[in-house]
Amino acid sequence: MAIAPSTLRVFASKPFMRFARSFGIDDGALRETVNGPYDADLGSGLFKYRLAREGEGTSGGARALIAMKSGNRAVLMFGFEKKDLANIRPDELRAYRKAARIYLSYSEDEITAIVKQKALIEIGPLTKGVERGKSVQERSVRGTARKHV
């Protein structure tokens, strides 16, 4: 089920963003992913999504574990390429489910404070004039395009 992009706040952990940069997926593609169909419902608000590089299919690409509260919040927690890791272990799955429950239980004020502390990165909607295909380092922050060096 697709979620209206304007109502969904999207966040990512720093390790996930490092993975996204190395995989070559931009903010626009990440937003499209969380607004698209999931690959598996892993329980406790944790979903597995397929990621693909532009011009490539999803089957040989990567996977993302995303905590999601429908229509409200998505937290991109962990990403991995299928060539490097077939799947996560049961103990890791339990830990990600627990983390998903915690992320999704935060109030809007609490999640905003976490972003201000830079423990999570908010992936804002792309601004006008910013084309798809830009690196994840060129992101929109509250309507202002900012390039991180």
Radius of gyration: 15 Å
What number of domains? 1
* Count of β-strands: 8
Residues in β-strands, percent:
25-35%
Structural class: alpha+beta
Through-space gap between termini: 36 Å
- Roughly what is the average pLDDT, rounded to an integer? 81
The biggest sheet amounts to: 6 strands, mixed
Structure description:
The protein has four helices and eight strands, in the order βααββββααβββ. With 149 residues, the chain is an alpha+beta fold. The protein has one domain (10-147). The strands form two sheets. The chain has a six-stranded mixed β-sheet, sandwiched between helices.
Write the layout of secondary structure elements.
Blueprint: E1 9-13, H1 14-23, H2 27-34, E2 40-43, E3 46-51, E4 62-69, E5 73-81, H3 90-105, H4 108-116, E6 120-123, E7 138-141, E8 144-147
Parallel strand pairs: 1-5
Antiparallel strand pairs: 1-6, 2-3, 3-4, 4-5, 7-8
List keywords for this structure.
single chain; 149 residues; alpha+beta; six-stranded mixed sheet; two-stranded antiparallel sheet; 8 strands; 29% helix; disordered C terminus
